[in-house]
Amino acid sequence: MLTPQIADKGVTKHILRAFDLHASRRLGQNFLISPGVVRAVVEAAEIESGDRVLEIGPGIGTLTQGLLEAGAYVTAVELDKKLPAVLTETLRGYEHLNVVQGDILKTDIPALMGNQPFKVAANLPYYITTPILLSLLEQKLPVTHIVTMVQKEVAERMTAKPGGKNYGALSVAVQYHTEPEIVLDVPPSCFFPAPEVDSAVIACTVRKTPAVALRDENLFFRVVKASFGQRRKTLSNALKPLGFSKERMEEALHGANVDAARRGETLSLAEFAALANNLAN
Ligand code: SAM
After folding, report:
1. Extents of the domains making up the chain
2. How far does residue 121's CA lie from ligand 1's centre (Å)?
3. How far apart are CA 32 and CA 38, in angstroms?
């Protein structure tokens, strides 16, 4: 069984002390101290020997160690300038590691990872996890799996089905590109320092082709955004800001077999696609 050693409260505290580090709130530094969670991430990413992995925010190397132990070739992008030197020590002896100091939001990922398939693993500050995930998907990189820690309620929004309060534009975007699955609920006690919120590991298996066929992807997401923009309104009202004539919109809704009195939160991906495709005609 995989036995990552850094994922331990005593070891983590020791490393922080030895390098005179203080977990930075600004950089969202809550380090994993649970070997079980590290194992769950590695398993969910279906890591096999030789897999190429982009790890975002390796911190002191907790998850990185799990990935390396499983045989992955890891490229780890870390913003904190102090941490590459720490990783050289904590992960000494592992050959297949390339640490890059920088901001993932400003990193040219195609240049860094090339055009061969790779996987993404991350435990990042929660305020940047969703933008990064969406940006990875929109760039249409050769990514096969994205396994990341997120705030529990964000994981619930990503996996939500039509009809519930959690279903929204994020659910549609994530499910259009991937098959998301909540792998594990992670309580605050699995991190040091403990965050204030509950977390979850979400595994997104990137689809080879998107969930629905679209004539105009940009228009599809505009329709989705508008539909959820004013959740309490009926579709015919919520979609007005898109600027189509009343007749055109009625025709498109009718053609998609969608009642204009419905609310956006009840539409499936297939219904959004049918509506957007009719509008793109
Ligand atoms: N992965 C480690 C773990 O699980 O223990 C560290 C997790 S900690 C929640 C988030 C890490 O992401 C920190 O090391 C932080 O410095 C790094 N980070 C924050 N913003 C980043 C960014 N924009 N690009 C790259 N790394 C970032």
Report:
1. 9-206, 217-280
2. 11
3. 8
Structure-token pair, residue 233:
């309104």
Q: Which of 78, 80, 83 is nearest to 26 (CA)?
A: 80
| Residue nearest (by alpha carbon) to ligand 1 atom 14 | 59
Q: How far away, in angstroms, is 44 Cα from ligand 1 center?
A: 20
Domain 217-280: give its CATH superfamily. rRNA adenine dimethylase, C-terminal domain (1.10.8.100)
The Å distance, Cα 83 to ligand 1 centre, comes to: 10
Superfamily of domain covering 9-206: Vaccinia Virus protein VP39 (3.40.50.150)
Q: Which residues line ligand 1 (CB under 6 A)?
A: 27-32, 56-59, 62-63, 77-80, 103-105, 123-125, 128
The pLDDT tens digits along the chain (281 residues) read 667 799 999 999 999 999 999 999 999 999 999 999 999 999 999 999 999 999 999 999 999 999 999 999 999 999 999 999 999 999 999 999 999 999 999 999 999 999 999 999 999 988 899 999 999 999 989 999 999 999 999 999 999 999 989 999 999 999 999 999 999 999 999 999 999 999 999 999 999 999 999 999 999 999 999 999 987 889 989 999 999 999 999 999 999 999 999 999 999 999 999 999 999 97
Between the CA of 52 and the centroid of ligand 1 the distance, in Å, is 19
Alpha-carbon distance of 174 to 28, in angstroms, equals: 23
As a whole number of angstroms, the distance between CA 144 and CA 207 comes to: 8
